[in-house]
Amino acid sequence: MYSFKEKYSEYLSLFEKRLDEFFARLKCKPQVLDDSLKYTLESGGKRIRAVLTLAVADMLGVKTEDVADLALAIELIHAYSLIHDDLPEMDNDDFRRGRPSNHKVFGVGNALLAGDGLLNTAYAVLFEKCKEDKLYVDAAAFICGCAGVHGMIAGQSADLMCAEKGIKDEEMLDFIVSNKTGKLISAAAASPAVIAGGKYFLELRQFGEDLGKLFQLTDDVLDEEGSLATLGKSAGKDRSENKLTYVTFYGIDQCRVYADIICSKCLGILEGIEGETAFLGDLVNHVRYREG
Amino acid sequence: MYSFKEKYSEYLSLFEKRLDEFFARLKCKPQVLDDSLKYTLESGGKRIRAVLTLAVADMLGVKTEDVADLALAIELIHAYSLIHDDLPEMDNDDFRRGRPSNHKVFGVGNALLAGDGLLNTAYAVLFEKCKEDKLYVDAAAFICGCAGVHGMIAGQSADLMCAEKGIKDEEMLDFIVSNKTGKLISAAAASPAVIAGGKYFLELRQFGEDLGKLFQLTDDVLDEEGSLATLGKSAGKDRSENKLTYVTFYGIDQCRVYADIICSKCLGILEGIEGETAFLGDLVNHVRYREG
Fold first, then answer.
1. What pLDDT, in 10s, does the model give residues B134-175?
2. A-chain residues within 8 Å CB-CB of B30?
3. How far apart are CA B187 and CA A31, in angstroms?
4. 3-state DSSP helix/strand/coil % of chain A, to nearest 5
5. What is the DSSP string of B59-78?
6. For residue A156, which residues of chain B lie inside 8 Å, CB to CB?
7. Residue in B221, B230, B262, B189 with CA at minimum distance from that of residue B97
8. What pairs with residue B99 in β-bridges?
9. What is this model's ipTM?
10. What is the model's pTM?
């Protein structure tokens, strides 16, 4: 009997196990580098990117072990981006996943290096797999592109620029969300398709970008409405900092309508895919109706 | 008639041409990301890593075009490390290569992203080459290891820790120099050997680490004695910040003796290599006796 919650926990456990094994082997000197590198990833989180990668692989009939390192690399990249994004000169967030941010525990210098280290380690993981499997080269190049200066980093740069200059522009908002959030989720959704020889790659890339947008929409609404207890980070922070978000641009009611539209779009893409799409469909609805 | 200076300029021009072509194609949005990403690399510098890679390839009979992207990736990684290292919470350097540091021009947030972007771009370059050439996977994995949490980043972390805690320890000094400076120079020296099928890989890796140590020794002496005009950065800064360096640990005279020993060691390694080693020998002496 299929249960979304149980299946999610199953994927999550698979990932946590892989991460624990990896971290157990990855001993860094000095100790502060080891501690700061592992701190942010060990504080849990939803691991939605990793779960997405494992679930898409299942759907496409790709073995979990053949995509486990894609999921690992993507979560390492995500963690690096959180650490650097939380730094005082960026989003200046003191809390992350209900715990003090990396730089609040280890200081800005060490947090900076922890982020650099996680990014570099993500690619070290991928290069190692590339030695065994030629398809990994294409998957890794795709992930690297999504994380890079025409992807996530471009989105972060635009986000910073808009915050500094007080820019409120719809096109810019789309650029930020599509790149900062959408690209890495799209890497998580579509990189298993590369390992599957390209099957449904374009559909899954689009699915990932849309799911990223949906995630950001609900995130912005939660930021406006949520509390520190459910979010694990400070609520209402975006508004107080006059940030360009879906909520500050469209308002909450319009965001809900927009979220429904994107939600339908995601489900529509899944309808065009042959295979067991139930979990991914439930994941879309989970992102749409989540409370934290 | 062979001339070291001319040959160096030749390698330098080859690299500059490759970099210019690459940057012309690499257009990033927003503009500030594009500008900050390119600023530090466009301010010139000795490009000793790139020159080393091209020269070793020549010595091993590997075509320049087959290692040009190794040199490019390594210089991108080097530039990222300079940008992050110059940040206020790290080495806090306001000048680099005679110009204001990246964060002095673009602000800390943008400099942080420029560094992230350069690191990510280095690996994007390598993954693209990996698609064409299986040997590039091994070379790229090696470079990534040298730059990573058991290489350059470990050295930077130890450097930061010693500065914060006022640690003065010979073993720690060796760890810092070997990792922070040595590993990436060793990547530059030995990665062409991977492309050559592993020929002299171990010798060249050792050569690179020793050359890195020599470079750091002379750098520390120059920092103590030099001026802003010849160094392009603030002189005597290490001492004033009570940093752990060869000079602050051994004193200048002992550093010169140590430099001579390492210099001989480098030349000794070259003697064991069949091929035209004249340029590399001159490069060692150039590093030993440079004035800036």
1. 999 999 999 999 999 999 999 999 999 999 999 999 999 999
2. 154, 157-158, 161
3. 25
4. 75, 0, 20
5. HHT--HHHHHHHHHHHHHHH
6. 113
7. B230
8. B96
9. 0.96
10. 0.96
